[in-house]
Amino acid sequence: MTEPRVFNVYCDESCHLENDGIRAMAWGALYARETEVRSIAEAIRALKVQHGLSPTMEAKWTKVSPAKVGFYLALVDLFLADDRLRFRGLVVPDKAKINHAQFDQTHDDWYYKMYFLMLRPIFCAPHRYRIYMDVKDTRGGPKTRKLHQVVANDLYDFNMESVQRVQQIRSHESELLQLTDILIGALTYANRGLVTSAAKVAIITRLQERLGRGVLTRTSTFSATKFNLLVWQSRGAVE
Questions:
Q1: Which residue has better confidence, 110 or 77?
Q2: Is the N or C terminus of the chain more exposed, i.e. has fewer CB atoms within 10 Å?
Q3: Which letter, b or e, does each residue of 186-213 get, where b requires 16 or more Cβ atoms within 10 Å of its Cβ?
Q4: d(CA 236, CA 234)
Q5: In 3D, which of 89, 110, 72, 88 has the Cα closest to residue 14?
Q6: With b meaning 16 or more CB within 10 Å and e meaning fewer, what string describes 128-147?
Q7: pLDDT at 177
Q8: Which among 65, 77, 38, 71 has a CA at the least distance from the CA of 53?
Q9: Residue 40 and residue 179 in contact, taking contact as beta carbons nearer than 8 Å
Q10: What is the model's pLDDT at position 59?
Q11: Rounded CA separation 70/80 (Å)
């Protein structure tokens, strides 16, 4: 019998608001065994110091710049080289194809459906999972409780034993959540077709060189476990 293990799952989202004027939106989750998280975080902090940065500096996609591109490329390389880390993402290329009225749902309803769709392949019995989400706004408390309920119900985990918690944390306190932000930032940037930042394009190029040309814009094969992506498509009718 497989020995149950606990996995930490670090989740974030980008451009997920319904009327923000941005075409593409994305969700993502970086995950690793709970027992490995501290050593991974220490490695990321050491990488910051190696590049002349404070170990407490918050790495973010919005902070990627020519002056710091060496560090961010090294951070991507750390992710690619560390077998303890895996990433699962979901991209909606065009919000215009979403029609909530046709499916009698609100944007919030659909948001939770997409979050579960993104997370579902990560879960595997008999393991246990602790989900950590970035603090974004004052709705965070109800949002985390609702997501926990949705995930648990869909897994028939009514006692919330498999998914032990869904909790907000601040990204500046978690190196793994910071890395999640970088990977989701690359996803949305690529799917928006942007090329305005040479530093950000360099990160996208590094991921493509190592994982395949379409890694950020095409649904992954079932065997892709290091970096697995689902590109959402409407099923005939707009969803």
A1: 77
A2: N
A3: bbbbbbbeeeebebbbbbbebbbeebee
A4: 6
A5: 89
A6: bbbbbbbeeeeeeeebbebb
A7: 97
A8: 71
A9: no
A10: 98
A11: 15
The C-alpha atoms of residue 109 and residue 123 are separated, in whole angstroms, by 21
- pLDDT score, position 84: 98
pTM of the model: 0.91
Dihedral sign for Cα atoms in the order 209, 29, 79, 123: negative
Average confidence (pLDDT) over 96-115? 75
Spatial separation of the C-alpha atoms in residues 11 and 119, rounded to whole Å: 9
Q: Which residues pair with 230 in a beta bridge?
A: 90
Contact 53, 67 (CB under 8 A): no
The domain defined by 6-231 carries CATH number 3.30.420: yes
Please count the residues of the chain: 239
CA distance linking residue 64 with residue 71, whole number of Å = 9
Q: Which long-range contacts (CB under 8 A, 24 or more apart) does 38-46 make?
A: 40/82, 40/84, 40/85, 40/175, 40/176, 41/174, 41/175, 41/176, 43/78, 43/82, 44/75, 44/78, 44/175, 44/176, 44/178, 44/179, 45/175
pLDDT(174) > 90: yes
- Secondary structure (3-state) at 29: strand
Q: In what order do the strands lie in the sheet with 86-92?
A: 163-169, 128-134, 6-14, 25-33, 86-92, 227-231
Hunting for tokens 């991507």 — which residue is that? 76
Nearest Cα neighbor of 75 from 108, 110, 41 is 41
Distance, CA of 130 to CA of 132 (rounded, Å): 7
Q: What is the C-alpha separation between 71 and 62, in angstroms, rounded?
A: 14
